[in-house]
Design a protein that fits this description.
This protein is an alpha/beta fold and 419 residues long. Helices cover 22% and strands 30% of the residues. The strands form 7 sheets. Strands 8-5-7-6-10-9 form a 6-stranded mixed beta sheet, covered by helices on one side. A 6-stranded mixed beta sheet has the order 15-14-16-20-19-17, with helices on both faces. Strands 21-24-23-25-27 form a 5-stranded mixed barrel.
Length: 419
């Protein structure tokens, strides 16, 4: 049955691609398409496992922090008025308060030794650091007359109050958020499920018996990149130029994955079978080729409610297209807030000049450095779309829009690599 279907699809080799779209138009088409694709389902996970996950609920404070007035340091707690009245005699020590104690109200005319983090006894209005005092005959004396109301006291709720919004739905979590969740008594939180992605490379050159066998790089590169974004990635290599073999692999991927990614096989050669097979499977083209460099062949299709990103076969181009198209889409699929993206751009002074062609948006590999207080953005030499060495030396990309230029000494913005 598969063979007959593919035979029927063979004439698709003569398919005429629509005109290329501009880079910004391609991004707009993808964003619009995302509005009709539901977010992934949610699940509850232990707060110890939330790093890299995207929060699917709002977290409001159920208790303030600090929960009570506490001491900011080791020292002595008392009423300022009592110390002023005592003068050179000082205040007698009535006891010690440690973190975890529930102290009784402060009696008139006495002081307590108090440790960092301990509750301030009711009636005390000041804590003086231990090193700024002396103890003589069981009395506390000030070495400096610096006692004042509120000194060294952390007030209840000064960090946040009960009911305050702590973390919003769509926040990507990391180690910084764990103490906050634990403080609020959270053992589990609702997060979006990790997206499942299948990455497929195809071509006879990757076959085990190929006369001129090549090392397949792209699925390894892309899997590592997307795993760092929290995805569950499965790699497939179809080591032949058979449409039937490719159909079997893509059909299996469509059953398994939330997103499909292919690499290579999308040009106009006799063995470029990816697009014909996807069309035979019922995929609709969102856009076919983009006026950008590198990455012009990129094509995005939709198979039901699953997106299929057909990336170029050259590793450098595949990586850049994944950074610009796949990673933002992936973040959107798991509900991650996107408004931070603009602030992620890094501004610096260009050390190079470049002029983009009138109809092509160019993405240049660059390296960002700080030198004597100045932010500098340097061009990384590259031999083209297949270059993998330049990726290891670049920290991001500079976008030069079609028909625009960048002159040495001008300020520009780098899109940092998602790593």
């Amino acid at each position: 049955m598969v063979g007959s279907l593919l035979a029927a699809a063979a004439p698709e080799q003569t398919y005429t691609a629509p005109d290329m779209v501009a880079y910004d138009e391609a991004q707009a088409l993808l964003v619009a398409c995302m509005q009709d694709i539901p977010l992934l389902a949610t699940e509850f996970v232990s707060i110890t496992q939330v790093s890299g996950r995207v929060l699917a609920e709002d977290i409001r404070a159920v208790m303030p922090r600090p929960e009570a007035d506490i001491s900011a340091m080791d020292g002595y707690a008392f009423r300022c008025a009592d110390m002023e009245k005592a003068g050179s005699v000082g205040l007698p020590l009535a006891g010690q308060i440690a973190a975890g104690d529930a102290p009784p109200p402060l009696e008139e005319g006495v002081a307590y030794s108090i440790l960092t983090g301990a509750r301030i006894p009711a009636g005390a209005d000041c804590v003086v650091a231990q090193e700024r005092t002396s103890i003589t005959g069981g009395h506390v004396h000030l070495l400096e007359q610096n006692a004042r109301n509120g000194l060294n006291i952390r007030r209840s709720g000064e960090e946040f109050c009960k009911g305050d919004m702590l973390l919003e739905h769509g926040q990507k979590l990391d180690w910084r958020h764990l103490p906050l969740l634990a403080h609020q008594g959270k053992e589990q939180v609702s997060v979006y499920k990790r997206p499942k992605i299948c990455v497929v490379a195809n071509g006879a050159e990757f076959g085990a018996t190929a006369t001129d066998a090549r090392t397949e790089l792209n699925t390894q590169l892309l899997a590592t990149m997307l795993q760092s974004e929290g995805a569950l990635v499965t790699r497939y290599v179809c080591g032949s130029d058979s449409m039937e073999d490719l159909h079997k692999v893509l059909h299996q991927c469509a059953q398994e994955a939330d997103i499909l990614i292919t690499t290579g096989g999308i040009s106009v050669g006799q063995t470029d079978n990816v697009l014909p097979v996807l069309r035979q499977m019922g995929a609709k083209c969102l856009f076919r080729r983009v006026k950008m460099r590198p990455g012009k062949p990129i094509t995005v299709m939709q198979l039901g409610q699953k997106m299929v990103f057909c990336l170029p076969g050259n590793p450098g181009a595949a990586a850049i297209c994944a950074q610009l198209f796949v990673v933002p889409f992936l973040r959107g699929l798991v509900g991650e807030k996107q408004e931070k993206n603009a602030s992620m751009l890094i501004e610096g002074q260009s050390s190079f000049s470049y002029v983009a062609a009138s109809d092509t948006t160019c993405f240049l590999p660059v390296h960002f450095i700080e030198d004597k207080g100045e932010n500098l953005i340097n061009l990384v030499p590259s031999v083209g779309a297949s270059d993998i060495l330049c990726l290891t030396r670049a920290t991001g990309l500079v976008k030069i829009s079609a028909g625009q230029s960048l002159q040495a000494g001008e300020m520009c913005k780098m899109i940092p690599f998602a790593v």
